[in-house]
Design a protein that fits this description.
With 332 residues, this protein is an alpha/beta fold. The chain has 13 helices and eleven strands.
């Protein structure tokens, strides 16, 4: 008997979605619930794992298996699950506070190991659940209840952090860019190692309009550059502007009519140098890159663990779980 085709409704739980009206999390939830049925994976093989924060309510709203874990530790839980059950499709939902503050070490070690999990980092540059304190991605000078005179902390750059940790798939999208976000999620799902996706998400209660120049239709074209592998980096009305490297290998914005398209930087998602340059672009002098910055193949952690377990077991080719299930271990 052929398996029934899954739909969006199959991934919608019976729980009331409880985010603030207008929160960008609704749009992200809609995108994920739309993409999951397309992947051709049985629903019982999906697991959504979260830490603490507004975004971390996500598992309740997905009709899949899931864990709502402790603050910042979702990547650790996800790593353990993926290593023990590599057949599962494991997705981590975290926020800029949960993932980059108390969970920073857990995040970077999952990335460097290249565990076959997908990490969605919702970045609203504020602590929403605890009522508007500054977060690791809040800009310098941000006034909040915890920094009434303005933050003096230099913020993290999540994409640069992921690249520095050796992530094999690094991308960015925006909550309300539904078509773009879904395409990025599909590419993340197809990646065999760790896929890290930063999603700009508006908190309309505590940090409304943080990404307005990017999301507003009137200013979007001049402030966003959509990356396409193998394509020159153009943006602005009718692609009139572009990015090129000067003699010092520093990026600069140019008018395409003045330099010609051949002078522009061509996006190469397999180039670490290209990804590094793109990760540093943004306001006030540059457009914000969205799309896949980096995508390369490297053996997944759980695959190497399984192969190592087989070698250790010798001719029996036992799985790690088989060894654990043998019962009493004698230590000499």
């Amino acid at each position: 008997m052929a398996e029934a085709t899954l739909t969006v409704k199959d991934f919608q739980s019976d729980q009331e979605v409880r985010w603030c009206p207008g929160c960008g999390d609704y749009a992200i939830l809609k995108s994920v619930q739309s993409v999951f049925p397309e992947l051709g994976i049985p629903r019982e093989n999906f697991v959504v794992i979260s830490g603490i924060g507004c975004s971390s309510r996500f598992p309740y709203y997905m009709s899949t298996f899931g864990f709502h874990t402790i603050h910042g530790r979702a990547p650790g839980f996800a790593t353990g699950l993926k290593v023990s059950r590599p057949d599962l499709e494991v997705w981590v939902v975290t926020g800029d506070g949960d993932g980059l503050s108390i969970g920073g070490n857990h995040l970077i070690h999952a990335l460097r190991r290249n565990v076959g999990i997908k990490i969605l980092l919702f970045n609203n540059r504020i602590y929403g659940l605890t009522k508007g304190q500054y977060s690791p991605t809040s800009p310098v000078g941000k006034r909040t209840s915890s920094t009434p005179l303005g933050s003096v902390d230099n913020p993290f750059n999540p994409l640069a952090l992921a690249l520095g940790a050796g992530a094999t798939f690094v991308a960015r999208s925006v909550d309300i860019f539904q078509a773009h976000l879904k395409d990025v999620l599909r590419q993340a799902a197809a990646h065999q190692g760790t896929a890290f996706v930063e999603i700009y998400q508006n908190c309309n209660i505590f940090n409304d309009g943080a990404f307005a120049p990017i999301s507003d239709k009137d200013t979007r074209s001049d402030n966003v550059i959509e990356l396409e592998h193998g394509k020159p980096m153009r943006f602005g009305a009718d692609g009139a502007k572009g990015i090129m490297l000067d003699d010092r290998l520093e990026p600069r914005v140019v008018n395409v009519a003045d330099v010609g398209e051949d002078a522009l930087l061509v996006h190469d998602e397999t180039s670490a140098n290209c990804a590094a340059v793109l990760s540093r672009l943004g306001p006030p002098n540059f457009p914000t890159p969205i799309g896949v910055l980096r995508a390369v193949e490297r053996p997944a952690y759980e695959t190497m663990m399984a192969e190592q377990g087989e070698r250790a077991a010798g001719a029996k080719k036992q799985r790690v779980q088989d060894l654990l299930d043998q019962g009493v271990w004698e230590v000499k």
